[in-house]
């Protein structure tokens, strides 16, 4: 399904390519589209959770006993691997602040080293900050997902920063 130009496009470059894996790119493009939603952060987080659910359904990963739309959001879950992928896409679309993306490498001598974290690194950092060691978060409900995105580890759309009043 790749379509490429074999010549110049008038500007010295080639035409953009269409990725072979259309579902993955659709997930990315819908994540980018979340930037355009003019809603409060909680509503955007809810939209992202639904997007992850739909992505899992399209890949055949949805739980056999999936909850219906009428049921409570906290009874539905999404896989951590889907959340890792979502956070990677949020990074690529600049929806996560730059300072949050810097993570330690573990090297401390002779100088402490840092790197730009991948989506999975940021999710792991958020999980470490929010839940105790050994917590089983392979599947996350909406409440856990919301907490994770608003945590200092992920900080979706800068939601981890606290607004201070004058005089605080």
Spell out the blueprint of helices and strands.
Layout: H1 22-33, H2 41-58, E1 77-79, H3 80-92, E2 102-104, E3 114-116, H4 119-130, E4 139-141, H5 142-150
Antiparallel strand pairs: 1-4, 2-3
Helix pairs in contact: 1-2, 2-5, 3-4
Structure overview:
With about 170 residues, the chain is mainly alpha-helical. The protein has one domain (about 20-155). Helix content is about 40%, strand content about 5%. It is built from 5 helices and 4 strands. The strands form 2 sheets. It has a two-stranded antiparallel sheet. It has a two-stranded antiparallel ribbon with strand order 2-3. The longest helix has 18 residues, at about 40-60. The termini are far apart.
Provide a concise account of the structure shown.
It contains five helices and four strands; from the N terminus they run ααβαββαβα.
Query: Which structural category fits the helices and strands?
Result: mainly alpha
Question: What is the overall number of helices?
Answer: 5
Task: Tell me the number of structural domains.
Answer: 1
Mean pLDDT metric: 77
Tally of DSSP β-strands: 4
Instruction: Show unreliable segments.
Output: 1-19
What is the topology, as strand order, of the major beta sheet?
1-4
Order of helices and strands: HHEHEEHEH
As a percent range, the share of strand residues is 5-15%
How large, in whole angstroms, is the Cα Rg? 19 Å
Major sheet summary line: 2 strands, antiparallel
Sum up the overall morphology in one term.
globular
